[in-house]
Structure formats: structure tokens, C-alpha cells
Automatic annotation (TrEMBL):
UniProt-recorded Gene Ontology molecular function terms: glycine-tRNA ligase activity
Entry annotated with the keyword ATP-binding: yes
InterPro entries, A to Z: DALR_anticod-bd (IPR008909), Gly-tRNA-synth_bsu (IPR015944), Gly-tRNA-synth_heterodimer (IPR006194)
Pfam families named in the record: DALR_1 (PF05746), tRNA_synt_2f (PF02092)
Localization per record: Cytoplasm
SMART domains according to UniProt: DALR_1
SUPFAM superfamilies attached to this UniProt entry: HD-domain/PDEase-like
NCBIfam families in alphabetical order: glyS
Family from the record: Belongs to the class-II aminoacyl-tRNA synthetase family.
Protein name, per record: Glycine--tRNA ligase beta subunit
E.C. designation(s): 6.1.1.14
PANTHER family: GLYCINE--TRNA LIGASE, CHLOROPLASTIC_MITOCHONDRIAL 2 (PTHR30075:SF2), GLYCYL-TRNA SYNTHETASE (PTHR30075)
Catalytically driven reaction(s): tRNA(Gly) + glycine + ATP = glycyl-tRNA(Gly) + AMP + diphosphate
């Protein structure tokens, strides 16, 4: 069969720019799923998107489903014929339903008997009969939180729809979707070129839109163009553009014909902390700030216009006029905030609830202060500085700047603390308390910052779990999963000697009688352990390695990490599989014992040479391993334990553990218990898969 490319395009009013790529990708995925379900062959499914269109192209799509033979089983021969060999009503009804006579039916022989059988040839449906339903189904599955209706139509979509194009090669597929009849008409740019263009063949889609309609339909190509243009303009200005992917995606979703320009603002605004200026340029104006190679903000901004103006200077001037009041606001808020110290804002925190049952932000700040001081002591940091940073940690939330620009919380606290002549470590900690803000974000650089960041996250975890509001499904309003992962990242990456259970107990005590969940410490600990599983899987560790360590429930994250790496190294050793199997066998034997197993071995009860050899090796290893375990050198410990493999194998090959002589049996069980306990000081390696 000759294949063609299929185009599906939905022409709309301007789509939400932040979710444009997500919508287009989801649309393509659903169309692809529909094609697979319909058993239509193709080579590739690609999506395209611009502010006023969602499009999917299916390469080398077969014109129809393949013909196939469907076997339809009828009644068993016993039920199909009576004693005289005449067809029963059941057989005749089945045959009639298949358009044949009973005599025309074939026989299906199975181990369970014989049955009537009809092999029906089913002719595959053609593309034009299948695609409309696939598209309708795909549109219905798009992640649209609030669909809208327009005009007098009952149809609803994320934005009003103006055109529907279903084209297979040069063939228009007839359909009515969302109340719109399919046609060859595509929307051009709002201000350039043709308002609408006619598409004769799918292969011309992008070229026709670009040449006649001034539209770059390929989202990824448009995104690359914008990035390249922004970088080039920044270089011309002697700087580097501050480009993050989320903003780049959003700007790509705003323009169909990108034209990149640069504007400027007064130098006086550079007296305001750069983060606030950058935030308002990016978030409010969708501009790309320009930095020096050293990271200092320049009084330049780059923006992407959707028109190629004959007077670009007028467009630049207009954008400069728009951004100036924003920057002036930031300047005003900053200067106003400097009139009050952070410490003077402490009392105002009493007017803001953190959570109804857990009290105000001031109470939270006091808890963070106390917990930060305790953590600082454990990591040999300055407890008084950590306490001070914890106490001031939320004060910048009451500043004018943060109230207007919430994303600069923390960073403004750092600037205000410096203005107040607070210790530099305290100032830095006020910014670092929220780190890491997202996956892959930077961690606190200093010990004081680490202490406050850990305290803040732990206070939230213990508080929310303490009132029974743990995350349910995908609902996590207090971002507890992110808090737990951030907690782990800081402790592990900084190799801090902190114990989650101990810290949770301290945090719990600070809430007084506010908490209602008596099991909160264990609940928080189990929740944190659960984050370990996902974290290490993302790093490429296999589930059985993670399970082996989780079975021991280490409560110190840095210790947990050391065990994971040790078990991963052990698993690569040639002795690992045999020792894992032996540990599993030992575990099963010990689990069946009703009476307690002795902790010591009686050497006078050792009979067989193989058990004597294993006992000697175990005793020798216990002495050798003690300092290794004391230093958490699990990797070396497991490497040494691997040397036990020959003695363990010989023991199980030659020694009957469950001997008739009860003292001898008990002594052998004690030996195996000592062997097992040495491995369990690292992990339960019996859970490792071969």
C-alpha cells in the first residue's frame, strides 16, 4: 500500500504560552495511541505548535488497516448437534449471526474437545473513516483544566477554534470536529502576510505557512531561533543573556514570527538588588536580562517581538516605557524596606498564620531558631549564628518587596540582613534556607545555611505529619515530598552526621501540645525513607540494592548513602551471588526457630572440619570488621566479608545444620546467626537478586 503523511491541525485563538508545548505533546501522544489502537502503521508521529495552532504530522501512514482473518468460535460439537446429527438451534443461530450455514462451518480441535469455527475475513477500514474519531478522542484527553465555549456552539476547548485541517497527502478528510467542518484553510500571522493560506499537500505545510503566512509552525525550530537570536544580541551588547528554559518555552509560545530586539533602562535602577530586577523582567515582562561575564546585571534587556516592524525603535521605546514603572516599583519597595530592620519585623509575623493548628509564622520562626541551633551544635557550626538566622528566616516575608515579588523571598532577606549589619553567615543563610528549591538546584554553601535549611524543612514535615495531613496521592499542598528530598540532599551531599529520628524528636518537642499524631516521628522517618527509594532509582541503582539497605532502616542519611554505595560495589564481586543466596538460606533457617538462638558459640561443640573453619573465619572477621564498622567503612567491610564465600559454601555442602543432637544444632544455629549479623550491620544482602 502506498503511504502518505497525515496532517492534523487545530487552528485557535491564542493558546496559553506556558502550557503550549505540553498541550501539543499530549495531543501527539493521544493521536499516536489512537493510531496504535486502530492498528494503522506509520513511521513517526511529530507535533508542531504556535500560539494559534496545535498540529500533528504522522509520517508514512498506511491508507487503511491491514485486512485480517478473525476466528469466531461457536458451540462445541456436542452442543451443536443432537443425537441424530442434526444441527441444534444454538448452532443455527450462531451460523446465521456469522452469515453462513452450519454445514459451512469449520471444526476446531482442542485438548478439551471440538468446536464449530468460522474464519471471517475482515477488510481494514480506510484512513478517512478512522482519523476523525481518533482526533476527537485525542482532543478529549488533553490536559485542559477549564475548557471554554464560544458563540452559539456547544463545543468546548481550551480556546475558541476557527479551523480544522485533516489532510492525508493531498486528500482532505471530511469531518466535523468541535463544530468546525474540516478544510484546507490555515491561519496566517495576525499582522504579516496572508491572513489565511490554502494547503494543497501536507508536504508543503511548514513552507506555505512560513512563506505566505509568516508563521514558523515548528515549536522546536522557533525555540532554537529565539535562543540563537537572543544570544547573538546579548553578545553585541557585550554581555550574556540570562536564558532559562521555562522562560524560553513561554516566549516561544507567545510568538509566531520571532524578531529579537534590545532595550535599556536607567543606571540608577541597578542600585536595587539584581534578583528583584531580574524577577520582574522575566516574570512580568518575559524579557531576557543581560549580564556581564562575571554575572553582574547590565542595564539592558532583550525581548522577542511577534512583528517585524518597519520602525523597531518605536517597538523598543514602547517596551522601555512599559518596564520602567516595574523597575521603579522595585526601587521604591527596596528603599522603603531599608527603613526598617529585619528584627523589627518579627512581631508582624504574629499576624500571619503558617497553618491554623500549627500557629503563626513567628511561632514557626522561633521553632526554626531553636532547631537550627541544635543542628549547628551537631555539625560543629556556630550555634548562636544558626539560632539568629533561624529567628530572622521569615522576616523578609513582611517586606514590601517580597509581598510584591514573592519569588525573591530569602534573597531579599540576605540583602536586608547585610544592610542591618548582621553577620555575613546569617545573611547568606537567609537566602540559603529555601535551597534546594527544585530538583538539581544548588545546595546551601555554609554550615549555618545548612542548619537553617534543614530546620525549616524538618519543622514543616513534623508539623504537617503531626496534625495528620500527610500527602495523599498527587496532592501535596505543603510540598512535603520536595522538603524531604531537599533534606536528604543537604545531609548526604554535605556528609553531615545527622540522625533523622533524633532531629524529628527535637522538632516534635517544640510543638508542645499542638500535634495530635503520637506516631509522628516514625511517620516522618518512614516518609523520608520512601524518598530515598525514588532518589536512588533516579541515580540508576537497582531496586534490590535499595531494598537491601532499606531493610535495615538506617536513620542517618549520610550513613544510608554509604551503605548503598557499598552494596552496589559488593554486588559486582564474583562472590556476591553465592553469599546472597547463603544469607537468604540462613535467614529462612533462623526465621523458623521458635526458641531464641544463642549469641555465642561453644567451640567444644564444633565437630566437622567445615564448621570449625567457618567459626574461625567468622571470629577473625569480627575482629577485623569492628574498626571498619565504627568508621562506617561499609565498602571495605563487605569486600572482606566476601572472602567468607568458600567457607560458607563448604559448610552448607558438608554440615547438617539441624542435627539430631540439640546442643550441636543450637551451636550451629548460633554460628549462622553470627554470620548473618555481620552482613546485617551493612544491609540485608539476602534481598539481592542474582
Amino acid at each position: 500500500m502506498s503511504t502518505q503523511t497525515l496532517l492534523v491541525e487545530i487552528g485557535t485563538e491564542e493558546l496559553p504560552p506556558k502550557s503550549l508545548s505540553k498541550l501539543a505533546s499530549a495531543f501527539a501522544d493521544s493521536v499516536q495511541a489512537g493510531l496504535d489502537k486502530a492498528e494503522l502503521s506509520y513511521t513517526a508521529v511529530n507535533w508542531l505548535a504556535s500560539p494559534r495552532r496545535l498540529a500533528v504530522k504522522v509520517e508514512a501512514l498506511a491508507p487503511a488497516q491491514a485486512d485480517k482473518v478473525v476466528e469466531k468460535r461457536g458451540p462445541s460439537l456436542k452442543a451443536a448437534f443432537d443425537a441424530d446429527g442434526n444441527a441444534t438451534k444454538a448452532a443455527e443461530g450462531w451460523a446465521r449471526g456469522n452469515g453462513i450455514t452450519v454445514a459451512q462451518a469449520e471444526r476446531l480441535e482442542t485438548d478439551k474437545g471440538a468446536w464449530l469455527l468460522h474464519k471471517a475475513e475482515v477488510k481494514g477500514k480506510e484512513v478517512d473513516a478512522l482519523i476523525p474519531d481518533i482526533v476527537v478522542d485525542a482532543l478529549g484527553k488533553l490536559p485542559i483544566p477549564k475548557p471554554m465555549r464560544w458563540g452559539s456552539s456547544d463545543a468546548s476547548f481550551i480556546r475558541p477554534v476557527h479551523t480544522i485541517t485533516l489532510l492525508y497527502g493531498d486528500q482532505l478528510i471530511d469531518a466535523t470536529i468541535l463544530g468546525i467542518q474540516s478544510n484546507r484553510i490555515l491561519q496566517g500571522h495576525r499582522f504579516h502576510g496572508a491572513a489565511t493560506v490554502t494547503l494543497e499537500h501536507v508536504d508543503d505545510y511548514e513552507a506555505v505557512l512560513e512563506e505566505q503566512g509568516f508563521v514558523i509552525a515548528d515549536f522546536q525550530r522557533r525555540k532554537a531561533m529565539i535562543k540563537s537570536q537572543v544570544e547573538a544580541v546579548a553578545a553585541q551588547e557585550g554581555g550574556v543573556a540570562d536564558i532559562d528554559d521555562a522562560l524560553l518555552d513561554e516566549v516561544t509560545g507567545l510568538v509566531e514570527w520571532p524578531v529579537t530586539l534590545v532595550g535599556s533602562f536607567e543606571d540608577k535602577f541597578l542600585e536595587v538588588p539584581a534578583e528583584a530586577l531580574i524577577y520582574t523582567m522575566k516574570d512580568n515582562q518575559k524579557y531576557f536580562p543581560v549580564l556581564t561575564t562575571e554575572g553582574e546585571l547590565l542595564n539592558r534587556f532583550i525581548f522577542v517581538s511577534n512583528i517585524a516592524s518597519k520602525q523597531p525603535e518605536a517597538v523598543i521605546e514602547g517596551n522601555e516605557k512599559v518596564v520602567r514603572p516595574r523597575l521603579a516599583d522595585a526601587e521604591f519597595f527596596y528603599k522603603t524596606d531599608l527603613k526598617k530592620s529585619l528584627e523589627s519585623r518579627l512581631d508582624s509575623l504574629s499576624t500571619v498564620l503558617f497553618q491554623k493548628q500549627l500557629g503563626t509564622l513567628k511561632e514557626k520562626s522561633e521553632r526554626i531558631a531553636s532547631l537550627s541551633g541544635a543542628i549547628a551544635q551537631q555539625i560543629n557550626a556556630d550555634s548562636s549564628l544558626a539560632t539568629r538566622a533561624g529567628l530572622l528566616s521569615k522576616t523578609d516575608l513582611m517586606s514590601e518587596m517580597v509581598m510584591e515579588f514573592p519569588d525573591v523571598q530569602g534573597v531579599m532577606g540576605m540583602y536586608y540582613a547585610r544592610h542591618d549589619k548582621e553577620d555575613e553567615a546569617v545573611a547568606i543563610a537567609l537566602n540559603e534556607q529555601y535551597m534546594p528549591r527544585y530538583a538539581g538546584d544548588s545546595l546551601p554553601t555554609g554550615d549555618i545555611g545548612c542548619a537553617v535549611a534543614i530546620a525549616d524543612k524538618l519543622d514543616t514535615l513534623v508539623g504537617i505529619f503531626g496534625i495528620g495531613q500527610s500527602p495523599k496521592g498527587d496532592k501535596d499542598p505543603f510540598a512535603l515530598r520536595r522538603a524531604a528530598l531537599g533534606l536528604l540532599r543537604i545531609i548526604v551531599d554535605k556528609a553531615l552526621p545527622l540522625d533523622i529520628i533524633e532531629l524529628a524528636e527535637i522538632a516534635k518537642a517544640q510543638f508542645g501540645d499542638k500535634l495530635t499524631n503520637d506516631n509522628v516521628v516514625n511517620d516522618v522517618f518512614e516518609f523520608v525513607l520512601g524518598r530515598f527509594r525514588a532518589w536512588y532509582q533516579d541515580q540508576g541503582y537497582s531496586v534490590d540494592i535499595i531494598q537491601a539497605v532499606l531493610a535495615r532502616k538506617p536513620s542517618r542519611p549520610a550513613d544510608f548513602d554509604a551503605r548503598i554505595k557499598a552494596v552496589a560495589a559488593f554486588r559486582s564481586l564474583p562472590q556476591a551471588a553465592a553469599l546472597a543466596a547463603a544469607n537468604k538460606r540462613v535467614g529462612n533457617i533462623l526465621a523458623k526457630q521458635e526458641a531464641p538462638v544463642a549469641e555465642t558459640i561453644d567451640v567444644t561443640l564444633l565437630i566437622e572440619e567445615q564448621e570449625k573453619a567457618l567459626a574461625n573465619s567468622v571470629a577473625h572477621q569480627q575482629q577485623q570488621l569492628a574498626p571498619l564498622f565504627a568508621n562506617n567503612d561499609y565498602q571495605t567491610a563487605l569486600q572482606q566479608l566476601a572472602s567468607l564465600q568458600p567457607d560458607v559454601d563448604a559448610f552448607f555442602d558438608s554440615v547438617m545444620v539441624m542435627a539430631d543432637d540439640l546442643p550441636v544444632r543450637g551451636n550451629r544455629l548460633a554460628l549462622l546467626n553470627q554470620l548473618r549479623q555481620m552482613f546485617l550491620q551493612v544491609a540485608d544482602i539476602s534481598l539481592l537478586q542474582s
